[in-house]
């Protein structure tokens, strides 16, 4: 069994705006020598200047794009991402491979960027001014030059916003909520038994809201993957880039709330957050208990 390997993209990640017109070629990096090459968008195989020849394929297990040497055609392969094995995978076009790499924070035609932040598995619960369908699972990638919203479906296009056009990026919601059986015990044995039962039945549910606003578009995402505080901390470089872009663009409309800053009591953002929480409760995403807990946290 051969590792299709080579699926780990060249060490040249970062982002950039999507093309506005059909491309004559896309850029892919050789997993062997790291040199980038221009490849026809509809090509399913290509050859690097170093002589290495690759087929582009879609892993049937995790749906990630992988490079593998064309000499391994017909042999049993192993996906470097999910470790699943397969034979004769479906071919993938170079343009789709480039999109797949970008969804995971990689773009071959730009230099490495340690401050790129990728948020995956976000559900778009509400939006205004966007062509992306509500309910879509999206990746939000914060690159060196802007933020890309990329729906999982290849049938929907990516939406990219330079930082100069991003007015706010806020993280809120109830975050992580822990629940257990709520057992009580009396006496040494009863307390010990109740403690053990509560520990075994403890479950953590994460409901974090990510609110992205641009000059013309607004997105509200729900994440069951990231806690509020860890995500806010992780996005610190992104908030810095937003502030720098705002300073460099004096014509940009002033922001009522600095990017990443928590909402102040008594401002309109409190009402907005309450409305979002109510919408999530009404749509069945949050239970009444989770709604009340989140509301109490929001109101302090």
Describe the structure.
The chain has 300 residues and is of the alpha+beta class. The chain folds into two domains: 2-103, no CATH class; 117-299, Pleckstrin-homology domain (PH domain)/Phosphotyrosine-binding domain (PTB) (PH-domain like). 24% of the residues lie in helices and 30% in strands. The chain contains six helices and 16 strands. β15 (203-214) and β16 form a beta hairpin. α5 packs antiparallel against α6.
Domains (count): 2
What is the average of the pLDDT values?
77
CATH architectural arrangement of the largest domain: Roll
- Order of helices and strands, N to C? EEEEEEEEEHEEEEEHEEHHHH
User: What is the β-strand count?
Assistant: 16
- According to CATH, the fold-level topology of the largest domain is PH-domain like
Strand order of the largest sheet: 13-12-11-10-16-15-14
Low-confidence stretches: 4-22, 252-257, 260-268
CATH level 4 superfamily of the largest domain: Pleckstrin-homology domain (PH domain)/Phosphotyrosine-binding domain (PTB)
Query: What summary fits the major beta sheet?
Result: 7 strands, antiparallel
- In percent, how much strand structure appears in the residues? 25-35%
Total helix count? 6
Query: What is the CATH class designation of the largest domain?
Result: Mainly Beta
What level of helicity do the residues show?
Answer: 10-25%
